[in-house]
Design a protein that fits this description.
2 strands; extended; mainly alpha; about 30% helix; single chain; two-stranded antiparallel ribbon; 2 domains
Length: about 190
């Protein structure tokens, strides 16, 4: 890792690499009904394609190349889900307008209830954000999704007090929140 060689058991190394490849969409799809060496329990050993192109991409999880692949895949997937579904939670970014071919950029992140109301559409949860999107457009965008990874929205609804007064909350050193919803301690107190 980071150019240094580490001795790791082949099973653990192949498991980590295969999981990374799955999350990044680098595995070849399995065909229904296919039985491979990996379909059987021990003592039959697993088959893994060591030093293949996809394996080399995930070989070192601390390398800048891996981080670039991870980040670009997550950002691409997030943008596709944002465009097609207006997924929540979301920090904001580029979205479809009511005319799906016109794109606009949200200058503000989804930080308040008003931002949320402007971002979320009237369609049912789990449906496309705009029913006027042609099926070919939706299928084309979703076919570009790779793996399962998306970016984590770190600023979603950050300006909204979600804890209401009058609720009996237990205060502890980690939350630092009183039953009135006021902050007793902040992140700077925890990490110092």
């Amino acid at each position: 890792m980071l150019i240094q060689q580490w001795n790791v058991s082949p099973f653990i190394s192949s498991l980590r690499r295969k999981l990374c490849r799955e999350h990044l969409g680098l595995l070849h799809p399995d065909k229904p009904g296919d039985t491979t060496q990996n379909s059987h329990p021990l003592p039959i050993p697993n088959d893994y394609d060591w030093n293949s192109h996809q394996d080399i991409l995930v070989q070192d999880p601390l390398s800048p190349q891996f981080w670039n692949l991870l980040s670009s895949t997550a950002q691409n997937n997030t943008q596709i889900f944002r465009d097609v579904f207006h997924s929540v939670p979301d920090d904001g970014g580029t979205h479809s307008s009511p005319n799906f071919l016109e794109m606009y950029t949200c200058a503000e992140l989804v930080r308040t209830n008003e931002d949320y109301e402007n971002f979320v559409t009237d369609t049912e949860v789990g449906h496309v954000a705009d029913y006027n999107m042609p099926l070919q457009y939706v299928v084309g965008r979703l076919s570009q999704v790779r793996g399962h990874i998306v970016t984590m929205p770190l600023h979603y609804m950050e300006h909204v007090v979600l804890i209401q007064g009058g609720i009996n909350l237990e205060v502890n050193d980690l939350t630092g929140i009183s039953s009135e919803g006021t902050r007793l301690i902040g992140p700077e107190d925890i990490y110092t």
